Amino acid sequence: MTALASRILRGDLRAASRLIRDVDDGRASAVPELQALFPHTGRATVLGITGAPGAGKSSLVDLLVTHYRALGKTIGVVAVDPTSPFSGGALLGDRIRMQGHASDEGVFIRSLATRGNLGGLSRAAADAVRVMDAMGKDLVIVETVGVGQDEIDIAGLAHCVVVVVVPGMGDDIQAIKAGILEVADIFDVNKADREGADRTVRDLRAMLELRHAANDRLPVDPKPQWEPPIVKTVAVGGKGTTGVSDLTQAIERQLAFLDSSGGRAVREAHRSRTEFLAILRERLLASALRRLEHEKGRLDDVAGRIARHEVDPWSIADELARGIAT
Questions:
Q1: What residues have CB less than 8 Å from 162, skipping those under 6 apart?
Q2: What is this structure's pTM?
Q3: Which of 1, 123, 166, 259 is paired with 318 by a 20 to 30 Å CA distance?
């Protein structure tokens, strides 16, 4: 056991921050630390909060932290912020919006950049969750960046996924049909004091009914199925915060359903598969790029040759793949 890993197991925030920073920077030194922590993980519940930008996810997370802290639970928050395509940096604004918990030793908030990952999660996010789990956090909340229907990676990480939508966003309900509808365990219509909130709830119910109609044509699954509830909240507003207790009750019902149906073990297996494939993909890509530079030249040079139609990308990719396989 390394000294850093030992400190993290004792709940040392500085040690955890250092390791998460190393993970986010892609430093190889982080891997032995993660390996040392791995046997001590698997106890935390992971809650995913996702939805379109401007839906009020950060304000909702702030209220959830307050609720669960009042119950005596320790909380970790992984807030995934967008990466600038120009500077490579990230705004990392969620810690600013959750300053009310900054002095609470039972809450550890860490922002990460997407690093260009269109699925809404950086590879470091899963490792950050592991670190917080090893620290002994009871609940780890992952707030994703909010990039629309492509944001489905959270399903491979969380035990419960809350999809946050708001009224008055035009075709936004239609836009989530193709992907995020399938990963939602709970729908939260936030900013429900706005005009059109009831219509948004009706639209969501209609979408769920359409999914039921489609599933009725498939072979019957004997296992019990979870029906995503729809709750309304007002995380911030002149009328005060409302509906958070309805949301937390829905979360607890869903987690209880997972435990009673064996769904938690299924999700853990899916999470492990997703994480392993992501690590394997990283290793293979790194190996391929090293081989490319050794045999063909730097990536930019090879890309230039492809752009000039001197060589096609399929041939080079196949050659590299064959080299890795041998």
A1: 47, 48, 49, 50, 184, 185, 186, 187, 188, 247, 251
A2: 0.85
A3: 123
